Amino acid sequence: MATVLPPQSSPPVAIIMGSRSDWPTMKHAAETLDRLGVAWEAKVVSAHRTPQRLYDFANGAKAAGFKVVIAGAGGAAHLPGMAASMTDLPVLGVPVQSKALSGLDSLLSIVQMPGGIPVATLAIGEAGAKNAGILAAQILALSDETLAGRLTAFREAQTEAVHETVED
Ligand code: RP5
């Protein structure tokens, strides 16, 4: 008799990015989620080079079990906005630092969404990716008290690590 496997649910956080070249930035979101004990899955999904992959991902993201989407892109950074247009999951946009314009192009492309389709836009680069990880965890912690406790501990550890004096 064939074994019937239970349907596999996705981890709560999807990290999508326009190119493999975005991973050195976006891995900071993944590392932050790891630190907070939140599972994630990362995929390269380009709004321009793989539009069908973007369509398939965004339309199926909720049914797949994802709860939050972190989307990073650089330059003409249409990925977060296009993903947001096709899912009602919260989309956190990370502007990746571009070579030509240092990420100002990415930031403006992501942040200037028309009313009705929000993308929660973070800072350019590593800080934005790290904060996207924290923000995703904060969203999930609204319905997960254990995770909320880990977030509190994370903040306390961060505060304790900031010394008041400039010398040891
Ligand atoms: C965007 O173009 C990507 O998000 C990336 O930041 C940028 C450059 O991509 P590559 O030419 O490095 O693949 O779509």
From TrEMBL:
Its EC number is 5.4.99.18. It catalyses: 5-carboxyamino-1-(5-phospho-D-ribosyl)imidazole + H(+) = 5-amino-1-(5-phospho-D-ribosyl)imidazole-4-carboxylate. Keywords: Isomerase, Purine biosynthesis. Pathway: Purine metabolism; IMP biosynthesis via de novo pathway; 5-amino-1-(5-phospho-D-ribosyl)imidazole-4-carboxylate from 5-amino-1-(5-phospho-D-ribosyl)imidazole (N5-CAIR route): step 2/2. One of its GO terms (biological process) is 'de novo' IMP biosynthetic process. Residues 11-162 form the PurE domain. GO terms for molecular function: 5-(carboxyamino)imidazole ribonucleotide mutase activity. Substrate binds at S19, D22, R49. The keyword Isomerase applies. It holds the Pfam family AIRC. Catalyzes the conversion of N5-carboxyaminoimidazole ribonucleotide (N5-CAIR) to 4-carboxy-5-aminoimidazole ribonucleotide (CAIR). Belongs to the AIR carboxylase family. Class I subfamily. NCBIfam families: purE. This is N5-carboxyaminoimidazole ribonucleotide mutase. The lineage of its organism: Bacteria, Pseudomonadati, Pseudomonadota, Alphaproteobacteria, Caulobacterales. The gene is purE.
